[in-house]
Design brief:
The chain has about 120 residues and is mainly alpha-helical. The protein has one domain. It has seven helices and two strands, in the order αβαααβααα. α2 packs across α4. The longest helix is centred in the last third of the chain and has 20 residues, at about 80-100.
Length: about 120
């Protein structure tokens, strides 16, 4: 049963559009310890988008483009893996540092590595 669930999630991540409760976006960002500006930069969206998503609370919000598979994968990883939740802040620190020293693509790579492995690189 687990493999069917994982395959379904993989198909979901390949899509470039989906919906999540706004509070889930907020939980992911806060667990990573990233500011709205840092999170939006890595996702390639305007900070007002992140503010709008988070302000929606329990209401499902549409998320499109690269932001969708990244946020969806992070949410799945943190919901599915307690160790990932515990390691999220460390991963967020690495992402924030990469934004300063290495740029957006390196930061995005670190965030995706965390989403896939559940630990910081």
């Amino acid at each position: 049963m687990r493999s069917l669930h994982t395959r379904g999630m993989a198909l979901r991540f390949c899509s470039m559009r989906g919906t999540l409760p706004g509070q889930d976006v907020s939980r992911v960002r806060e667990a990573l310890g990233l500011s709205v500006a840092e999170f939006s930069t890595v996702l390639g969206v305007h900070p007002s988008s992140v503010h709008r998503w988070e302000a929606a609370g329990k209401t499902e919000v549409p998320i499109e483009g690269v932001a969708w598979p990244v946020v969806s994968a992070l949410r799945f990883r943190m919901n599915d893996d307690g160790a990932a939740r515990r390691n999220a802040a460390k991963a967020g620190e690495a992402v924030a540092a990469a934004l300063i020293t290495g740029g957006i693509l390196i930061a995005l790579g670190l965030l995706l590595a965390f989403a896939v492995k559940g630990k910081s690189a």
